[in-house]
Write a structure and sequence with these properties.
- With about 450 residues, the protein is an alpha/beta fold.
- It has nine helices and 26 strands.
- Helices cover about 20% and strands about 30% of the residues.
- A hairpin with a 2-residue loop joins strand 14 and strand 15.
- The longest helix has 13 residues.
- It is globular.
């Protein structure tokens, strides 16, 4: 069996490794458009944090590891079209037209930072750094800049703002919503971050939509929003990524947002063709299909597609949109439905917000935890955490609780170890009304 995988980022590599595990005699071929392998998309942030000395260190797998797994790979292989009737992939490699046949095809082509609504966003002066070559160019430009404008106040944009501020850069953030990171945290939970953004001197422009970006002759860039504009040395595009799949043939069905339509086994509308990662929509926190381009989803979908190559064995369980990061001195994490999301749901929800001491020691730090749960059944639907202490791993426990449909009462009874140096009498992820300094219920 020959398995061809288009794309060698997280989803493609995960699919290749799982295929090798399950099919020891298969020939596995990875076709990667980029000339470098396995670059971590936020590698530039790792460099700015001084966690890696150069961008080449931002790799999640090496070429040697692929060779050890007997996986063939071609870097700089730009897929131009696929013929699903004849089972042929046509690609350009080393400036020559090549083609390869397949028995099974996995489309893991990833995504690009695109914005069709912002005129001028595709020009080179607008920095994007999801890919290695882009990150190298962005690093050089930012180093030369004193004032940087960031379009988009999501996780990537806010992380960039924090790191650039530490470099003594003047930073402007333009966000169309009325608070930052709205996909992951509710407005009441994000307030410490927004206060820290303000205190750092960042010019935060909320509720503003960018219309055009213009390059000036003096190497400055002007961003126009509403009736206003800001001119800076560099602009970072931090809006949502989108799939870019010009090579698909007409037999593969797409959604209106141009993601590939798949079933719960990640099969497309064409036999023996699968799609994974940033190419597809996923079942979201409320079982609605939405676009959730996160690395953890890419890896899991790659594994599931490889499992189902010959027959449907395991259905993909969906995504809770679980994230965690550290920004402006605070650790924040989120999983599942937010209170803001619930207005689009057919569920009636309640939320509880609790401030909890992290250990039994008098000098311990605290965390704010917010639970969102079904008002009728008490099944936990979402959770958010914020603290100046590192509480990021705790969101994994809460994600598991949501995935296994635990109730608030179940959380009260969850069995955790106790040690006064490391835990409170009841763990942070136990919702108990008499713990902490306060419990605030808010019905929607």
């Amino acid at each position: 069996m020959r398995v061809v995988i288009i794309g060698a980022s997280f989803a493609g590599v995960a699919a290749a490794l799982e295929t090798r595990k399950r099919h020891p005699n298969a020939r596995i071929v990875l076709l990667e458009k980029q000339t470098t392998l396995a670059y971590i998309p936020n590698g530039l942030h790792l460099h700015w944090r001084n966690e890696i000395e150069d961008l080449n260190k931002a790799r999640f797998i090496t070429e040697e590891q692929l060779v050890e797994s007997s996986i063939d790979y071609y870097l700089g292989a730009n897929v131009e079209k696929i013929n699903t009737t004849q089972k042929i992939v046509v690609y350009n490699y080393l400036e020559k037209a090549e083609q390869i046949t397949y028995d099974k095809l996995v489309i893991a082509a990833g995504s690009k930072q695109l914005s069709e609504k912002i005129k001028g966003s595709a020009q080179e002066s607008v920095l994007k750094y999801k890919r290695y070559e882009e990150a190298q160019a962005a690093l050089t430009k930012v180093n030369e800049s004193q004032h940087v404008t960031i379009i988009g106040g999501g996780q990537v944009g806010v992380e960039a703002a924090d790191l650039l501020t530490r470099q003594q850069k003047k930073v402007t953030i333009i966000e169309s919503m009325d608070y930052v990171m709205f996909k992951y945290l509710d407005k009441d939970m994000i307030q410490p971050i927004q206060q820290a953004i303000s205190d750092s001197g960042i010019d935060l422009k909320l509720g503003e939509t960018v219309s055009t970006i213009e390059s000036k002759t003096n190497h400055k860039v002007t961003v126009n929003y509403g009736e206003e504009f800001v001119t800076s040395d560099a602009v970072i595009m931090s809006v949502n990524v989108r799939p870019h799949l010009p090579f698909l043939d007409a037999h593969i069905n797409l959604h209106i947002d141009q993601t590939i339509a798949v079933d719960r086994y990640l099969r497309t509308s064409v036999k023996d063709v699968f799609a994974v990662g940033d190419c597809i929509q996923l079942s979201g926190p409320d079982k609605d299909n939405i676009y959730i381009p996160l690395i953890n989803n890419a890896v899991r979908t790659g594994i599931v597609a490889a499992t189902n190559l010959n027959k449907p064995e395991i259905a993909f369980k969906g995504s809770l949109r679980t994230i965690g990061t550290k920004i402006f001195g605070h650790y924040i994490a989120s999983t599942g439905m937010t209170e803001s999301d619930s207005v689009f749901s057919n569920k009636t929800v309640k939320s509880s917000r609790q401030k909890i001491r992290l250990t039994s020691l008098p000098s311990t730090e605290t965390a704010i935890v917010k639970w969102v749960y079904d008002a009728k059944t008490h099944v936990v639907l979402g959770a958010q955490l914020i603290s100046t202490a590192n509480i990021l791993e705790k969101v994994n426990t809460l994600a598991l609780a949501i995935q296994t449909k635990q109730t608030i009462e179940d959380l009260q009874q969850t069995d955790y170890f106790f040690h006064p140096s490391y835990t409170q009498m009841i763990a942070t992820t136990n919702l108990v009304s008499w713990m902490g300094e306060g419990l605030f219920d808010d019905e929607n």
